Amino acid sequence: MMNKQRILVVDDDRSIVKVVRSYLEQAGYDVRVAHDGEGALHALRSDKPDLVVLDLMLPDRDGWEITRIVRADAALRTTPIIMLTARVEDTDKIVGLELGADDYMTKPFNAREIVARVRALLRRASFAQEAPAQILRIGALALDVDQHLLTMDETPIDLTRTEFTLLQLLMANPGHTFTRDELLEKSMGYAYEGMGRTLDTHMSNLRKKIEPDPSKPIYIQTVYGIGYRLMREAT
Description:
Layout: E1 6-10, H1 14-26, E2 30-34, H2 37-47, E3 51-55, H3 63-72, E4 81-85, H4 90-99, E5 103-106, H5 111-130, E6 135-138, E7 141-144, E8 149-152, E9 155-157, H6 161-172, E10 178-179, H7 180-188, H8 196-210, E11 220-223, E12 227-230
Parallel strand pairs: 1-2, 1-3, 3-4, 4-5
Antiparallel strand pairs: 6-7, 7-8, 8-9, 10-12, 11-12
Helix pairs in contact: 1-5, 4-8, 6-7, 6-8
């Protein structure tokens, strides 16, 4: 029997954990839970989940700090993170994405939608692992798909899983303009109304990491009213 994919659900609201756990288990996942930041870190290191559903507001370490720690840990940094937040301010969501969260959902939410997003992110992660080995090169950038490594002039650059997937799509299709919905579907597995801000934040993060001057990008170009493309040759 194929091993079940393991999901870690972290929230101090036990009623939310109970509902989310129930839906995910019905969908066939092995679910582990934690109710605070320390418990989350222990579970991450001992259980090595395939994905984390992480509440922003926890009684000790908040979701932002947990995300920072995960992305700084070589053994955990590619673990997909869906952040849950009761806050509605865009700045809170943007900070989470900038720190490396792959997606966020605002409370109250539909538990079935969490299952759909979990399934989509895991499917994307599985596809990335099964992709044939290759190295994509544009200008000073070299993206090793097999090793999940980006270098610029041979200097390694850390990317989140979503940033890596977006850059891989763009570098594999230089000069091609992707619509915003295409990028969301291909990188995250789904596109919902209002997700454009999520995509823009991921692109902004990428530019900060690869562009000599993010305000005047030479790699990732915005095609206004449509989406984004990667220049065939950086100039």
